[in-house]
Design goal:
single chain, 14% strand
Length: 72
């Protein structure tokens, strides 16, 4: 996570891999669609090993949901 400061405001940013892992952890239908779209758009620069590791930290359900998305 990065913080970007502009004047008095702070903007917190996360990487794509973190975003995908959080979406599969949330697990709702729209969350999984969001995750699938980011995976599709990620191309070769997306670190799938990192995404898998992050999803495992969120638990078996998140890891399994990610596996299903990557298999499609």
């Amino acid at each position: 996570m990065r913080t970007s400061r502009s004047g008095e405001s702070a903007l917190l940013l996360i990487g794509r891999e973190d975003f995908i892992a959080m979406k599969v952890f949330a697990g709702g239908p729209l969350d999984l669609i969001d995750a699938a779209r980011v995976i599709s758009a990620g191309g070769p620069s997306l670190d799938l090993a990192l995404v898998r590791g992050l999803a495992r930290k969120y638990g078996e359900d998140a890891s399994n949901a990610l596996g299903r998305l990557l298999a499609d």
